[in-house]
Design goal:
261 residues, 33% helix, 11 strands, D-Maltodextrin-Binding Protein, domain 2, six-stranded mixed sheet, 2 domains
Length: 261
């Protein structure tokens, strides 16, 4: 039996965080889209998961951040984008990618504070549905590159929009686990994997990007110059500000405060 079971984001952006763990005999990895990973942790099917930040503080959960590994940006993220036919201040309805929780909350917040002060009507979007009637669509992850919405005139990166609003990084996902478990050793292993993954990010892009629909050179820039993988004090400040704003706007329930190992 593996010693550690991890729920991992199935996109290219998670690969530096799990470098070497895929082949480690004491690890078992389950890959899925971000929105489905919290349920794995809820059900006890994994010991830790790379969960959307908004899921970390739901009042019914007793989770802690178990590592300083994360998926974050400090400006453009490239793979959290709104494609729109009209200026954002004229958008009334946003169709959203169901793979995400945090990005949907971020979009609602930005429409309140940056894009006209309005409440969005949010509708689900499936990648194979017609787009003719869609004013604007939020997509996340590899599909932004592999299946872009080329018939929309305006593209807006939500990482850039957050940086313009606050001057801070944005954290999309962190490693979380139950608070009644000692995660000290796991935290060390995850930190080592992240450090090795960051050091080998270009190699990861060369090896994995073509299998996920990414041009290699674009993937290299994405992993080395767009994304960040360490939860620094500044990243924590950005994460806490996002959660505070989301609560103020009623986008997430008042729940637990962030807790760290």
């Amino acid at each position: 039996m593996p010693r550690y079971r991890l729920g991992v984001v199935s996109y290219l952006n998670s690969r530096p965080l799990i470098y070497g763990l895929e082949a480690a005999p004491d690890f078992e990895l389950t890959l899925d889209v971000p929105a489905r990973l919290p349920a794995l942790l809820d059900a006890g099917r994994v010991d830790a998961a790379l969960v959307p930040v908004v899921d970390l503080v739901r009042p019914e959960r007793d989770w802690v951040v178990v590592s300083d590994g994360c998926i974050a940006c400090d400006g453009e993220t490239f793979t959290v984008r709104v494609f729109s036919r009209v200026p954002l201040t004229q958008v009334d309805t946003l169709h959203v990618d169901g793979d995400s929780h945090t990005s949907v909350a971020l979009a609602k917040l930005l429409w309140r504070e940056s894009f006209g002060g309005r409440d969005l009507i949010v509708e689900p979007f499936e990648r194979d549905q017609p787009t003719d009637a869609c004013q604007a669509i939020l997509l996340i992850g590899d599909k932004v590159v592999g299946q872009p919405l080329i018939d929309f005139d305006i593209e807006t990166d939500l990482g850039s929009a957050w940086k313009s609003l606050t001057g801070l990084p944005f954290v999309f996902a962190v490693w979380a686990g139950r608070s009644d478990v000692d995660h000290t050793e796991l935290a060390g292993r995850l930190g080592q994997a992240r450090d090795q993954g960051v050091a080998h990010a270009e190699e990861i892009a060369e090896r994995i990007a073509p299998t996920m629909g990414w041009p290699v050179e674009l993937a290299k820039r994405y992993l080395t110059r767009r994304l960040q993988f360490t939860l620094t004090p500044r990243h924590r400040q950005g994460m806490e500000l996002f959660l505070e704003k989301a609560r103020t706007h009623g986008l997430i329930a008042a729940g637990r405060e962030l807790s760290f190992v």
